[in-house]
Amino acid sequence: MGSASNSIAIHWFRQDLRLSDNPALSSALKSGRLLPIYILDEVNAEDAQIGDASRWWLHHSLMELNRSLKGNLRFYRGDATRILPKLAAETGAGTVSWNRCYEPWRIKRDTAIKEMLKEDGITVITENGSLLWEPWEILKSDGSPYRVFTPFYSQGRLNGRLPREPIAAPASISFAPADKYPETVDLAELNLLPRSNWTLKREPDWHPGEAGAQAQVRYFLENGLNGYKIRRNFPAAENRSRLSPHLHFGELSPHQVWHALSFKEHMPELDDDIGNFKTELAWREFSYSLLFFNPGLSNVNLQQKFDSFPWRSDAAALEAWQEGRTGIPFVDAGMRELWQSGYMHNRVRMIVSSFLSKNLMIDWREGARWFWDCLVDADLANNSASWQWVSGTGADAAPYFRIFNPVTQGTRFDPNGDYTRKYVPEIAALPNKWLFNPWEAPTDILEGAGIVLGQTYPAPIVDLKTSRRRALDAFSDLNDSRKAGVAS
Ligand SMILES: Cc1cc2nc3c(=O)[nH]c(=O)nc-3n(C[C@H](O)[C@H](O)[C@H](O)COP(=O)(O)OP(=O)(O)OC[C@H]3O[C@@H](n4cnc5c(N)ncnc54)[C@H](O)[C@@H]3O)c2cc1C
């Protein structure tokens, strides 16, 4: 092994596609000349293969990262447990570093790789690059994990350490020689760009990569933070950060976001907005804790009683939901936003997921799968925890009887109808009063707006009242049968 100045330090980029505030990268730079790599590992990912929208994002993010690394990023495709030890041996690297990931398949794989590298005498550096508090840092006094958000957050905030200060980007990087390393492929050969008929219609709205992430934080602090607490619920408003894909791919760390807020903390009128925004960041932390302590989160009901819930199998309804053709305008607007932009506003995510799992009584896992494929921010922890929360199967779940009414929700949170009209233009001419419930509009109003229900826009695929009742009955049957089971 050579001295630090001429030995090679491999940094394995994963969910940390940035140079600033990258603890494992900073450590690697102290250990030798940098050989930065990215491995698209579809072998170990098994059923957690990333979806099309995320692939699109990843392609562009890697392109940006490679640009920041002056073209030195090496790309690999395949089984990381084979590629990484081999590369380390062939280059004679003394150090391999990465920031920790928390998906069960990654933990299993990374543990195996770490062992292999250590056996080969290589120093392995792993750091926390993506969470304010790692799951094992926030525990109840008896050492067990929290299953409810509020105490989790107050424990983290009040008793945990404060999120660390972000680390500056390296002033300069000394790269390993630009040899042709074995098995390197070009970015294009990762084949990340969509294979299906899906294309992001609103690509210009997004700027994947570290620079785009930092610009987005600045934009949000100036244009979206003021009023966030209330206005974050209104999908037509600017008061949401749209940082989720940047955080998911680690183009920006939560520490950077947390500390960026401190530049606004001298403005007392923003206290509530800042507090509320930090709470949302903490929901992300909580989801990661849930995933870490419940590795089956994406597939297993956290409340076991739901294992016998009579989910309906209804392919036509599922397809109508996916395509934004349910005839319920606020639901359709959300599903079309998702398809066109790879994103959906949080409030609308709650409404469409409640509609699927409750009004349609379709298994939440069907919805989670669709989101996984369509979201640019698809995240195993956040997606699984949120679906379980809305559908009522989660540990800390919205009570099952809380079934969002998409008509009242639309009226309340899209009062001018701007969001709904944007995504459901075929009913745009309806007056606000009937925009969210066109099936109840008088015939002359429909005619005046050029709408023929069932032709120019679908008639609703379910009656909201009846389907709500059906879901509540199924839920109370579930509880009754459990009670009977306990009694017998
Ligand atoms: C059914 C459903 C599925 C979801 N799937 C995902 C997903 O795959 N990936 C994802 O990042 N978020 C998911 N969310 C959570 C949330 O909707 C998004 O994080 C948020 O809408 C992203 O927009 P934003 O960055 O503008 O949010 P902001 O309101 O600006 O929030 C800032 C950040 O806080 C975090 N955050 C906010 N709300 C939540 C939440 N409820 N749970 C966890 N973290 C949160 C995100 O990282 C977000 O970027 C889901 C929510 C629901 C109801």
UniProtKB/TrEMBL annotation:
Site, Electron transfer via tryptophanyl radical: residue positions: W311, W364, W387
UniProt similarity note: Belongs to the DNA photolyase family.
Reaction catalysis annotation: cyclobutadipyrimidine (in DNA) = 2 pyrimidine residues (in DNA)
Name of the protein described by the UniProt record: Deoxyribodipyrimidine photo-lyase
Matches recorded under SUPFAM superfamilies: Cryptochrome/photolyase FAD-binding domain (SSF48173), Cryptochrome/photolyase, N-terminal domain (SSF52425)
Domain of life: Bacteria
Comment on bound cofactor: Binds 1 FAD per subunit.
Key words, A-Z: Chromophore, FAD, Flavoprotein, Lyase
One GO term (biological process): photoreactive repair
Pfam families: DNA_photolyase (PF00875), FAD_binding_7 (PF03441)
Protease found in the keyword field: no
InterPro entries, per database record: Crypto/Photolyase_FAD-like_sf, Crypto/Photolyase_N_sf, Cryptochr/Photolyase_FAD-bd, Cryptochrome/DNA_photolyase_1, DNA_photolyase_1_CS_C, DNA_photolyase_N, Rossmann-like_a/b/a_fold
Organism: Sneathiella chungangensis
EC number(s) from the headed UniProt entry: 4.1.99.3
UniProt cofactor(s): (6R)-5,10-methylene-5,6,7,8-tetrahydrofolate; FAD
GO MF entries: deoxyribodipyrimidine photo-lyase activity; DNA binding; FAD binding
Binding annotation for FAD: Y228, F277, D377, A378, D379
